[in-house]
């Protein structure tokens, strides 16, 4: 579902336990959230688990949420998503420290498959600064509009568009040089 007329009504009904209203919100958000989490976690299984946790937190938070605008709503969801990803990375880092001997045995490039186009794009994305990478991922993987991204990262829409354009140019140069 790409468009919802009345987020406010769905949020109110969901907060009161209306399963159909929550399902509508879930179906509207799931592809965007999963695509973003999948890109950030680099693992389909982890992305599935994290996304599930995001929606549990989202559901629990709805009674305390006051709807003001579509962009503010997406910001609310994105904040939950960022917190869950931060927790994921913190836990992943802790596991990495515990398994340091195993990690030391692995070579840095072992995780990359040079024959894959998606890996080339991932490496090119990693060369971008964090904000530019975030904008590209939010726009192309999670399908947020520039207006929504501007709200999510507290920038003007025109600045987001400029950053996006520059990032695509940089990606083009990186990918053409391969």
Characterise the protein shown here.
- One of its GO terms (biological process) is DNA-templated transcription initiation.
- GO terms for molecular function: DNA binding; sigma factor activity.
- This is RNA polymerase sigma factor.
- It comes from Candidatus Kaiserbacteria bacterium CG_4_9_14_0_2_um_filter_41_32.
- About 75% of the residues lie in helices and about 0% in strands.
- It has two domains: about 1-105, RNA polymerase sigma factor, region 2, helix turn helix motif (Rna Polymerase Sigma Factor, Chain: A); about 115-178, Orthogonal Bundle (Arc Repressor Mutant, subunit A), CATH 1.10.10.10.
- By secondary structure, the chain is mostly helical.
- The longest helix is centred in the middle third of the chain and has 29 residues, at about 70-100.
- It contains nine helices and no strands.
Quick overview of this protein structure:
With 178 residues, this protein is mostly helical. Helices cover 76% and strands 0% of the residues. It has helices at residues 7-15, 19-41, 44-61, 70-98, 100-105, 117-127, 130-141, 146-153, 157-176.
